[in-house]
């Protein structure tokens, strides 16, 4: 019995030790924006990245930072401006390494060092650094076929990176993972907490954000308490595009030590409020001066901020339609006047021709006798008179159409004015003038029609022309004479040739 109790006691103590040592401590993360960047609008208008500095071949755009382009022998880097103020941290980096060839070079590195490094031989950064370097090595320098490779290496400022062996003997730990030319962006998470370094890797074959796998884990890693973050890359005889899309930094705090957000003091609030008011007054003055100096541009700017001013109101639209209708009526009346002038001119020409015909008939005498040879009206004159009459009829029809159209438009305008809420408009006088003008046109047409009926066209004598029979006889005689002449001429020429 005593032996059983001893066994239970030993088992209980072992279980307690396992449970106590197996408790996982979950730190509290806090996002640090001064040590992070991501798209969109990653770069400012001047090309800079807030809180970061880049050099070499690095180029920042709205969506990413290209550390090096796919050109040979290029180096670039980007570093934080300020040192960290927290001891433990976690980094999430999303990047792409793309190239044309099956093999790329040289690689990309993530740094945590005690100072900002310059351009150098270790993946675009200096050697003998103090801190941590996470290397994504693309090129196989030692010829072992173990690249692309991910490794972690610490340095106290005395070690020189061994390029010939790809630093395989200097690493803390590493993993063989391919990160080139993936369908999706490659991801990595680096956590440094309680002197334990953990690197997780997402190979970019899927679009699942949580598809991470363990790459390495190293304990008893001692790094500078505060430092700078950096990313560098380099190309050699082969070249890849090294693009970083997102770099997110989180400070890690043990449970119970979460930082409390610090508020702004009242004195600072009052100071900021005064500065804001001063800036606002200065801005208003500058706006007023700009309006006085550039009224047209100020109006355009005001239209941009208040687009409703560009659209007319209902009353303005109604007045504009009335004015347009009146201008169209005026143009139509001008056309009617031109047509009337043409008709009157043609009528005067017709009357003069008829009077000339009548005078010629009276001078020939003989009462009912026909007109003399000199006063006979020709066919072309009769056709001209008929054409003039046709044109008069057509002009009358056009005038009638114009009158009908004007009448319809006038009725529409009157109806629109009646439905316009009783607004008084000066168009009534214009409409009355139009009606008077139309009445005058009708009276002129009636008088022209009466004159035409009172003075009909004189009868036209039939002109005797050459009949077809005489024409063909004349042509036959002419043809016989020509044939006879040709035969006579050919006979003479034949007789003349006999003497030669």
UniProtKB/TrEMBL annotation:
Membrane topology: Single-pass type I membrane protein
Transmembrane stretches, start-end: 469-488
Basic and acidic residues composition bias: residue spans: 284-304
Residues in the signal sequence: 1-20
Limits of the L-type lectin-like domain: 29-252
Start and end residues of each stretch annotated as Disordered: 284-313
Statement: the UniProt record of this protein carries the keyword Transmembrane helix: yes
InterPro entries: ConA-like_dom_sf (IPR013320), Intracellular_Lectin-GPT (IPR051136), Lectin_leg (IPR005052)
Gene3D superfamilies listed in its UniProt record: 2.60.120.200
Primary location recorded for the protein, binned into one broad class: membrane
The keyword Magnesium is assigned to this record: no
UniProt keyword list: Membrane, Signal, Transmembrane, Transmembrane helix
Cellular compartments annotated: Membrane
Identification of the protein by name: Protein ERGIC-53-like
Source organism of this protein record: Limulus polyphemus
Gene: LOC106461490
């Amino acid at each position: 019995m005593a032996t059983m109790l001893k066994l239970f006691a030993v088992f209980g103590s072992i279980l307690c030790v396992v449970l106590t040592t197996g408790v996982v401590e979950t730190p509290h993360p806090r996002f640090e924006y001064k040590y992070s960047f991501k798209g969109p609008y990653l770069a400012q208008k001047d090309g800079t990245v807030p809180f970061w500095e880049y050099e070499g071949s690095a180029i920042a755009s709205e969506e990413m930072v290209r550390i090096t382009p796919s050109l040979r022998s290029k180096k670039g880097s980007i570093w934080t401006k300020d040192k960290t103020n927290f001891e433990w941290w976690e980094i999430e980096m999303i990047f792409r390494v793309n190239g044309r060839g099956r093999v790329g070079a040289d690689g990309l590195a993530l740094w945590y060092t005690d100072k900002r490094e310059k351009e150098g031989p270790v993946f675009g950064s200096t050697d003998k650094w103090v801190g941590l370097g996470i290397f994504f090595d693309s090129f196989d320098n030692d010829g072992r076929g173990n690249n692309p490779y991910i490794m972690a290496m610490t340095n106290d400022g005395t070690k020189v990176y061994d390029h010939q062996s790809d630093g395989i003997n200097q690493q803390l730990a590493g993993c063989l993972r391919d990160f080139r030319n993936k369908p999706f962006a490659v991801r990595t998470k680096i956590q440094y907490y309680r002197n334990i370094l953990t690197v997780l890797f997402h190979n970019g074959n899927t679009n699942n954000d949580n598809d991470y796998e363990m790459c390495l884990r190293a304990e008893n890693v001692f790094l500078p308490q505060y430092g700078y973050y950096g990313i560098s890359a380099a190309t050699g005889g082969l070249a890849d595009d090294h693009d970083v899309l997102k770099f997110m930094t989180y400070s890690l705090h043990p449970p119970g030590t979460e930082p409390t957000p610090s508020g702004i003091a009242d004195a600072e609030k009052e100071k900021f409020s005064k500065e804001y008011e001063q800036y606002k007054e200065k801005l208003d003055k500058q706006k007023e001066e700009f309006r006085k100096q550039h009224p047209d541009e100020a109006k355009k700017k005001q239209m941009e901020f208040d687009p409703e001013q560009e659209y007319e109101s209902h009353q303005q639209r109604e007045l504009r339609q009335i004015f347009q209708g009146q201008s169209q009526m005026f143009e139509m009346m001008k056309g009617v006047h031109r047509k009337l002038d043409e008709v009157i001119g043609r009528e005067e020409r017709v009357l003069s021709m008829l009077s000339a015909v009548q005078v010629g008939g009276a001078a020939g005498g003989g009462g009912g006798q026909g007109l003399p040879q000199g006063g006979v009206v020709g066919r072309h004159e009769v056709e001209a008179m008929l054409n003039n009459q046709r044109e008069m009829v057509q002009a009358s029809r056009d005038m009638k159409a114009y009158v009908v159209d004007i009448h319809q438009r006038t009725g529409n305008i009157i109806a629109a004015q009646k439905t316009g809420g009783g607004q008084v408009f000066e168009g009534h006088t214009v409409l009355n003038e139009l009606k008077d003008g139309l009445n005058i046109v009708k009276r002129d047409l009636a008088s022209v029609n009466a004159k035409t009926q009172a003075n009909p066209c004189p009868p036209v004598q039939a002109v005797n022309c050459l009949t077809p029979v005489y024409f063909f006889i004349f042509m036959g005689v002419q043809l016989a004479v020509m044939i006879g002449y040709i035969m006579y001429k050919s006979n003479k020429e034949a007789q003349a040739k006999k003497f030669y």
